[in-house]
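Request:
Um, any thoughts?
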Amino acid sequence: MPTASINGVSISYTDTGGDGAPVVFSHGYLMDSSMFDPQVAALAPEYRVVTWDERGFGGTRAAGPFTYWDSASDVLGLLDHLGIAQAVLAGMSQGGFLSLRASLLAPHRVRALVLIDSQAGQEDPAVAPAYEQLEQTWLEHGPGPVQDIVASIILGPPDGTVDYKPWFAKWAALDREELSFPFRALMDRDDITGRLGEIECPALILHGTADAAIPVAKAEVVRAGLAGPAELVLIEGGSHASNLSNPDQVNVALLEFLRSLP
């Protein structure tokens, strides 16, 4: 993968190139740019598709603490590096967190938003202690003792459509100490629900009905809060990573939305 030096970070990315309208995909926590392979394959014939590894994952290192505002600055810097004036920003979970913030930082750079199993608020206090415990076990003993639980939350049940094994291999290779930086960005993020009314671009919200991490109600809050036209499409049976568990449903809705943009 090529890299770009942005905000003092060497960021790995992919770019299909071409003359199509650009769409930039940002992945979720513990994932990397490869999680959008099904979307790249579906969109590349018509669009210029960019994916990237966020701090702490894939080929991008996290040298120290950061926030999703920093990540938003990263994706905007990537647009600059690639010579893209305006793009559709599509993000899954934390990718949506940073895409919303990029829309607040530079609304003129964001043609539209696609939010996949994401939200605008903070972590639910009822589940935050369990996530903290999972992280502590991971840091002390590696992902092995908790990887099945984590995978079921993100990818769906073990007998579902997503193969855990490739992700287990990626997680085993992660630097445990470095992982604490993106984890703290996730758990300590600010609530931007009250600022959704500042975002006026069109938005497509895709949310799995079987999302075990973020309930559909959180997506409904985002739809209601955005100032621009926003459509919520439920992905029947979709996991937290509904673009992986139900790629066909996601791709159909995604292409329909992109083709509808002026």
Q: What stands out?
A: Residues 3-260 form a domain with the Rossmann fold fold (CATH 3.40.50.1820). The chain has a mean pLDDT of 97. The longest strand covers residues 9-15. Residues 68-82 form the longest helix (15 residues).
